[in-house]
Each structure stands twice: as structure tokens, then as C-alpha cells.
């Protein structure tokens, strides 16, 4: 994992989530992000749902 730059690791994590890869692999990437002190990127769909839920605007 140390051969990946922070940007490459973040991109790999995003892609693994997008492709719904095995949870163990995603967890391994997430653990490396946390070891490096990086916040795992938030999925866009999840972020939109949270924002809509907070405003009570579920249909958006």
C-alpha cells in the first residue's frame, strides 16, 4: 500500500465502493486511509440522501 500516493489510494477506495467490491478489500483500503490520517471520501449518493433527510426534502 505504501507505493500508492494518497491521491491514488483515495481514488482506489472510491472506485472499490462504486464497483461494490468485496467488503474485506474496501475495509483494507479504508484502514490504510485512516493510517495515513486521511478521511475516506463520502459517496455522492449517500451525501445527497443525508442532505435531503436533514432538510426533510426526500424527493430531491
What's the arrangement of secondary structure elements?
Elements: H1 6-18, H2 23-35, H3 44-55
Helix pairs in contact: 1-2
Keywords:
60 residues, mainly alpha, 3 helices, 63% helix, globular
Walk me through what this model shows.
The protein has helices spanning 6-18, 23-35, 44-55. The chain is mainly alpha-helical and 60 residues long. It has one domain (6-55).
Summarize this structure briefly.
This protein is 63% helix and 0% strand. It is built from three helices and no strands.
Q: Determine the mean pLDDT.
A: 81
pLDDT below 50 for ≥5 consecutive residues: which ranges?
Answer: 46-51
Overall 3D geometry?
A: globular
N-to-C order of helices and strands: HHH
Helix content: 55-70%
Domains counted in the coordinates: how many?
1
Largest sheet: none
Looking at the chains present, what oligomeric state does this protein adopt? Answer: single chain
The helix-and-strand class reads mainly alpha
Total E-strand runs: 0
**N-C termini distance:** 39 Å
Strand content of the residues, in percent?
Answer: under 5%
Q: How much is the radius of gyration in Å? A: 14 Å
Number of helices: 3
Amino acid at each position: 500500500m505504501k507505493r500508492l500516493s494518497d491521491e491514488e489510494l483515495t481514488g482506489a477506495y472510491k472506485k472499490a465502493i462504486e464497483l461494490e467490491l468485496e467488503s474485506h478489500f474496501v475495509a483494507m483500503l479504508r484502514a490504510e486511509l485512516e493510517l495515513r490520517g486521511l478521511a475516506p471520501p463520502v459517496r455522492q449518493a449517500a451525501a445527497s440522501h443525508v442532505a435531503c433527510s436533514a432538510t426533510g426534502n426526500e424527493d430531491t
